[in-house]
Amino acid sequence: MSTMELSASLEDYLEMIFFLSREDGKARPKDIAERMHVRAASVTGALKALSEKGLINYIPYASVTLTDKGREIASRIAVKHEALLHFFTQVLGIDAAEAEEFACSMEHTIPDHILQRLVRFAEYTETCPSFNASWLESAEAYFCKAQDCEQRCEKCRLVD
Question: What is the pTM of this model?
Answer without folding.
Answer: 0.74
